[in-house]
Amino acid sequence: MKVKYPIILFIIIAFNCSQNKRTIKGETIFQRELNAKFKDATQSPLKKKDRKNFTGLDFFNLDSSFVVKATLKRTPNSKWFKMKTTTERLSEERVYGILHFNLKGKTYQLNLYQGKDLLYKKGFENYLFLPFLDETNGLETYGGGRYIDAKIPESDVFVIDFNKAYNPYCAYNEKYSCPIVPKANYLTTRIEAGVKNFNAKQD
Which end of the chain lies in a sparser environment, N or C, as judged by fewer CB atoms within 10 Å? Predict the structure, then answer.
């Protein structure tokens, strides 16, 4: 009979732990991976108090109409410039190319940027940066705009998936230094896709 008590105690502890462990939300791989990263204390930009009850970011419903094929016009002779950030830091960037695309019957363009520092960082040599502003900023989405990660494509066809748009880290924690989206990348339309504004009051 004495042997059973440690077993019962272990079962109770395991049950309580499983009850306290919150399931990471997400409809897509991108959403689940992003939510898992935000829950992980070693990677999360969230403040400790916000991470405590975090179960997932708020996303727009997945919408295939916000996945568009763009034509990439490369700009190999573009000069490096100092992109402003939310702190005194300046990020050295250049316009890698200009994306031309149609979205819901209208034509738009966005500058695609390449960071100088990442050219020499292993694993990021092909990294490109697509920041943008749109008419949801300050309403459903973060006022400072959002970002999309990208890689140098082999062809001049470039797929923009706005469902993968995410907030800069400074939207969650002021200690981060985030590039400020250039005015050239303002879209005069509502991009109802990707991550929404962060609400620190999680259930």
Answer: N
- CA torsion 130-136-138-143 (nearest 10°) is 0
Q: Cβ-count burial of 201 within 10 angstroms (0-12 exposed, 13-18 middle, 19+ buried)?
A: exposed
Q: In sequence order, what E strands does 2-141 have?
A: 67-74, 81-84, 90-103, 106-115, 127-132
3-state secondary structure of 197: coil
Query: pLDDT for 147-187, tens place per residue?
Result: 999 999 999 999 999 999 999 999 999 999 999 999 999 99
Stretches in the chain below the pLDDT threshold 50: 1-20, 202-203
End-to-end Cα separation, the chain, in angstroms: 42
> Tokens at residue 52, please?
């405590």
Q: For 192, how many CA atoms within 13 A lie in the half-sphere containing its CB?
A: 5
